[in-house]
From TrEMBL:
NCBIfam families: mpl. GO terms for biological process: cell division; cell wall organization; peptidoglycan biosynthetic process; peptidoglycan turnover; regulation of cell shape. This is UDP-N-acetylmuramate--L-alanyl-gamma-D-glutamyl-meso-2,6-diaminoheptandioate ligase. One of its GO terms (molecular function) is UDP-N-acetylmuramate-L-alanyl-gamma-D-glutamyl-meso-2,6-diaminoheptanedioate ligase activity. It catalyses: UDP-N-acetyl-alpha-D-muramate + L-alanyl-gamma-D-glutamyl-meso-2,6-diaminopimelate + ATP = UDP-N-acetyl-alpha-D-muramoyl-L-alanyl-gamma-D-glutamyl-meso-2,6-diaminopimelate + ADP + phosphate + H(+). Pfam families: Mur_ligase (PF01225), Mur_ligase_C (PF02875), Mur_ligase_M (PF08245).
Amino acid sequence: MKPQKIHILGIAGTFMGGIAQIAKAMGHIVTGSDKAIYPPMSTQLEQAGIAVDDDQSIAFLNQSPDSVVIGNAMSRGHTQVEATLNAQQVYTSGPQWLAENILKDRWVIAVAGTHGKTSTASMVAWILQYADLNPGFLIGGVPENFGVSARLGDSPFFVVEADEYDTAFFDKRSKFVHYHPRTCVLNNLEFDHADIFDSLADIQKQFHHLVRTVPGNGLIVMPDNQSALDEVIAKGCWTPVEKQGQEHADNAWHYELITDDGSAFSVFYQNEKLGDVRWQMSGLHSVSNALSAIAAAVHCGVPPKMAVESLSDFKGIRRRMTLVGEVNDIKIYDDFAHHPTAIATTLQGARKQLNNSKRSGRLIAVFEPRSNTMRMGIHKATLPKSFIDADAVYAFIDPEWNWQLAQEQFEMPVFVQHSYDDLLEKLTAELQPGDNVVIMSNGSFGGIHQKLLASLQN
């Protein structure tokens, strides 16, 4: 295939940056542009030799690209979007480019759901790699076993994190309807993305569109305790479904905990024990993700006992309870949690891990409600219960969001700051030796992680 010139608008996001790396690996000439770029994507693009320009420059059109791939963060009115349209330049979306250039020839394993997509997709990719199947993948995070968020791979298998967010300004369907998976994992389903969906029913409709694309000789894997997903399947399903959970009744897969924090558990298929997983992950959500990943990999042909065995070597995901550093016996963790349920499960796992380690000290939650849904204040009523396992909560709330945290509804002390600097100063003054600090955001949080370590050191 003749190399093409591809320019990507919005290249700094994990999905579009992954597209860039895969296109480069195929031999294409890839450039991109964005308004802000920071690790880990800046590092990955630099290592791949992909140049990134400012998001206001239209110089890329002078290079006569064969195609411009437009990210879903780009809207009408943006300088580069308008220039692309005015030049009658060929353009497409990231999901469509992926489907037409990669996925059409692969066995696609898609992982969808409100929570756990990145972790579960990373587990599937690792299990396949452990079985020497060398899969391609495109994941919205960086699996520590691979060190990159995307790769082309050279086997029939391709693992993709299947997002329900819309595709592009010119294609308002969910991204995942482009992927046509043969193996589909549905993790869970809650109301989210209030900027594009009006209700849970709207999201369920999109998930049913995904279900409609899975062939009859494929497989859908899902937990046994997700009523919203059950309602999706009830709308019509033409594919075998395997359920998993803690109970063995009616479930193809089930687990039994060895430790209550989920750091060790046994895996069963059709009531036959396949083996034990002892890993560095924690939380029942991680165990559930693991069972789905195992079931998906087995559908791809991995021997069941090998699939179970592989997860003891799974190293986790960057920004999923990642230890950033320790100063004066104060541990700082980074986590991507930004939805009330994700916050709750993260802190629940951290609390159990803390209790089992017999480490004294407080569990301190630091968060910013940065997602579009959070900024709209959609989840502010359910936030207080999400922090039940924390001893204290520190939050950044931007005054421009025009809503306040209901501090009186929290069962622990809550401290709200309206600037990153004030939050840093507050934490530096009040953290104590023995504290375990979990910083939660789906963005860079103003670089507070390293700034806090440096401030505590000083």
